[in-house]
Specification:
The complex is a heterodimer of chains A (about 725) and B (about 90). With about 725 residues, chain A is an alpha/beta fold. Chain A contains 21 helices and 27 strands. The radius of gyration of chain A is 24 Å and the shape is globular. Chain B contains four helices and no strands. The chains are: A alpha/beta (about 725), B mainly alpha (about 90). The interface of A and B includes residues 256 and 514 of A.
Chain lengths: ~725, ~90
């Protein structure tokens, strides 16, 4: 039995408003340098607050976005430091957290199209729009990576990306993972946070008695994570270990934190436990510390409870008073600062903090950085939808990371589909038994409790209803060990453009606050988790045409890493003329006929957990993976075991696969079932294909079914077998 | 007969907060808006403030003063009525 690899950090890159460079920016932060100043990226007219932490002198590539430029700079630094800029190992992966993508560069175009659908536009300029675009750009520049995935978990995204990357190293799947987060400012996010009254009119003051809100910022940070033994063998300098990680959903409210911070406490404790460390081992906590009255009070109270028993409480600081809240980058940027503290044995201050609230035993650092002996540090990040994440970094060899659980088979214990025929439970891909042409689904409002679903928009209603139906089918009562991974390819361009158009026409005062949280690409999944009280890790993935398979793939990773016993994996897309005519084609995603709408949700569990609760498996999920490019790079688990007559391939459009391609992956001569003519070509069609696969297995037509995606930029597979 | 703006404020709430299946007759103007009654939260308060300003041209102040205005439909309607008289 081999020991699970420990996760070494061999390179870090960082860009923020205060400066560039992992060590250089840290030095400036320790001097107390603040990078919150007047807005220059767009007009602040009509806004009560006109401050932001912009990254100065950022050079963009032609047709490229700020997000891409930030990511390229940070990733480049990390790879150079790790000595991998000249070439990546064969099993190198990329995971990027983002929530804005190319919004800044494209939002005015989309807003104009909202007002006039016939307005001329530059399609090439929209290519950088999706949140998955920065990851694709990193792959083009620094690849090839074997996996190129984007995650969105609002303001916890950067931490979640690091945690997921670490899981891939621990699973023995990756020789190196480039993991991090990026977000650039945009008019949309600025208008949104302004409408919530969240912005401080002065540069923000985390943990200060007179704090009034947050300052928005932009930035990026990337880490090179690799197995410690591999790093040592190739003589790489090890900055530290990513020793612990935990993430969970509060399932409380889409914007407000739980008043007592119970989940924050749970996540911090779980991260410590996963590192095999007690609270006393942590010398420094890099807090989420946004500067809002609620967050800081909740976080401090939760931390004070976790560290209550220690003799000398940890030093605590937040960088958001100096670099602003960098949204999806924050979890990674601040993890980088926490790691720098460990490397330099120096704790950075909380810029803007004059008079801290009292939360013994926490010791808030103000003014300048202070030297401190550190063995291990903790970094917190919390996001909209109550997504909480904590990371632990430790000196090489100091921690005792808990190994991932023994490998277990994974089973689907329940599933549901949604389409023109409505919400169906466990009845195959809704198009499987007849089913009409692609078209709109019925109004989802009637499927959910109106009192608890009032605020959900259509994508969120789809996700919440699908998750509820799948959980019902699986007879699973969700709790802390049930997570959710949602697939969402484009966020909500229609709603986002409507929101911004309103701001442009009527002014920032009339931006609808209740609509803004729904615009974050992770919101449909977050609403589904809140509605269904799922309190394990919850996040969204985005990977273009293969988004639905990416959701299954990441669900597998979460289960294999022991972060949950069950995960609801779902993908749903709603009809949108803007996506169908403009956004998807600009991203090279098109199909014959109508795009359609719909989706599917699956409850995936370890066979062990399912067995413990006496649940019936509907099918075995052998594996799910997506990779960039077209060439088959089929993983070993996808080899066909059944005879061709007892196997099936399910895909959107059979003509995209071709006999040669199927032969190359070992599935020649197998009947291909196509669902696209019934589902449409929206990105959740592959989730419906997976549902169809389960129906084929249960109906006895096949013993083994491969769900396949082959498109311009991605290939993907999910293999399901008849339950044992 | 209702006091001025009571019916209009009720209809505004239903539209602005998407209170499906409710009409003005369902809403008791004396019942607390928050914590029971309609069960609204702080995000709703922000949305209501924006909608009131858009519909009636009356700005809702921030902070403590807003809390008493938001007690119930009656208090909100009374504020709108008073401000409209002022600016008339």
């Amino acid at each position: 039995m081999s020991v699970a690899p420990r996760v070494a950090v061999t390179g870090v890159g960082l860009v923020c408003s205060v400066g560039r460079g992992f060590r250089r920016a840290f030095g400036l932060l320790c001097e107390g340098r603040r990078g919150v100043g007047p807005l220059t990226l767009f007009s602040g007219e009509g806004y009560p607050v006109r401050l932001a932490a912009e990254v100065p002198e950022l050079e963009l590539e032609p047709g490229g976005s700020r997000s891409e430029a930030l990511a390229l700079a940070a990733a480049g630094e990390a790879l150079a430091q790790a000595g991998l800029a000249g070439g990546l190992p064969g099993r190198a992966e990329l995971v990027v957290a983002a929530s804005t993508g190319g919004m800044y560069e494209t939002e005015l175009t989309l807003s104009a199209l909202h007002r006039d659908a016939g307005a001329p536009y530059d399609a090439a300029a929209l290519r950088c729009h999706p949140i998955s675009a920065p990851a694709d750009r990193l792959h083009e520049r620094f690849g090839p990576f074997r996996r190129v995935r984007t995650v969105c978990s609002a303001c916890a995204g950067g931490a979640v990306a690091l945690g997921l990357g670490a899981a891939r190293v621990r699973a023995g799947e990756a020789e190196a993972v480039l993991a991090g987060g990026v977000d650039a400012l945009s008019r949309l996010t600025f208008a949104g946070f302004s409408s919530l009254g969240s912005l401080d009119a002065e540069p923000c003051r985390p943990f200060d008695r007179s704090r009034r809100g947050l300052s928005l910022g932009e930035g990026a940070a990337f880490f090179v994570l690799e197995p410690l033994e591999r790093a040592r063998a190739r003589g790489a300098a090890v900055l530290g270990e990513l020793a612990g990680f935990a993430a969970a959903c509060e399932a409380h409210h889409i914007t407000q934190p739980e008043p007592e911070g119970a989940t924050v406490g749970r996540v911090v404790s779980a991260a410590l436990a996963s590192a095999g460390l007690g609270p006393a081992a942590i010398g420094y906590v890099d807090a989420h510390g946004t500067g809002t009255p609620l967050n800081d009070a909740t976080e401090a109270a939760a931390l004070a409870r976790v560290f209550a028993g220690v003799e000398r409480g940890p030093l605590v600081s937040s960088q958001k008073g100096q670099i602003g809240h960098t949204l999806s980058a924050a979890g990674a940027v601040e993890a980088a600062v926490a790691l720098a503290a460990l490397v330099e044995q120096r704790v950075p201050p909380t810029g803007g903090l004059a008079e801290p609230e009292d939360h013994p035993p926490l010791r808030f650092v103000r003014g300048r950085g202070e030297a401190a002996p550190l063995d291990a540090v903790l970094s917190n990040s919390f996001g909209f939808g109550g997504s909480d994440a904590s990371l632990v970094f430790a000196r090489e060899g100091f921690a005792a990371p808990a190994p991932p659980p023994a490998p277990s088979a994974l089973v689907v214990t329940g599933y549901a589909t949604l389409g023109p025929a409505g919400l169906r439970r466990g009845e195959g891909g809704y198009g499987g038994r007849g089913g009409g042409p692609p078209g709109p689904a019925p109004d989802p409002k009637g499927w959910l409790d109106p009192a608890r679903s009032r605020r959900l928009d259509r994508p969120a209603l789809f996700a919440a209803a699908l998750a509820e139906a799948a959980l019902g089918e699986a007879a699973l009562a969700p709790g802390e060990r049930t997570g959710l991974v949602a697939g969402g390819a484009y966020g909500s361009p229609s709603s986002s453009s409507a929101f911004l158009s309103r701001v442009e026409l009527k002014g920032p005062r009339f931006a609808p606050p209740a609509e803004f949280p729904n615009l974050v690409p992770s919101s449909p999944g977050a609403h589904a988790a809140i509605y269904n009280r799922l309190r394990g890790p919850s996040f969204t993935v985005s990977e273009g045409a293969a988004t639905a398979l990416a959701a299954l793939s990441s669900a597998v990773d979460v289960l294999r890493d022991g972060q949950a016993d069950a995960v609801v994996a779902l993908a749903a897309e709603v009809e949108s003329a803007l996506v169908e005519r403009v956004v998807a084609p600009a991203c090279s995603v098109v199909g014959p006929g109508p795009r359609g709408e719909g989706g599917a949700a699956f409850v995936v569990e370890t066979a062990e957990a399912a067995g413990r609760r006496g649940a019936r498996a509907r099918a075995l999920l052998v594996g799910a993976e997506v990779w960039p490019g077209d060439a088959p790079s089929a993983p070993p688990w996808s080899a066909r075991a059944a005879s061709p007559a007892r196997a099936r391939v399910v895909t959107l459009y059979a003509e995209r696969l071709g006999a040669a391609w199927l032969e190359a992956i070992g599935w020649a001569g197998v009947e291909v079932v196509e669902v696209g003519p019934r589902t449409g070509w929206h990105e959740a069609g592959l989730a419906l294909a997976a549902a169809e696969a389960i129906a084929l297995l249960e109906g006895g037509a096949a013993d083994e079914v491969l769900v396949v995606e082959r498109s311009a930029r991605r290939a993907g597979l999910a293999l399901l077998r008849r339950r044992p | 007969m209702s006091a001025p703006y009571v019916v209009e404020v009720k209809e505004l709430l239903i539209r602005a907060l998407d209170l499906q299946g409710r009409n003005a007759a369902d809403i008791d103007e004396e019942a607390p808006l928050f914590g029971g009654g309609l069960g609204l939260d702080s995000l709703d308060a922000l949305q209501i403030a924006m909608a009131v300003e858009e519909e009636f041209g009356v700005a809702i102040p921030e902070g403590e003063e807003a809390k008493s205005l938001f007690r119930n439909v009656a208090s909100l309607a009374a504020y709108v009525a008073a401000k409209r008289v002022e600016s008339a």
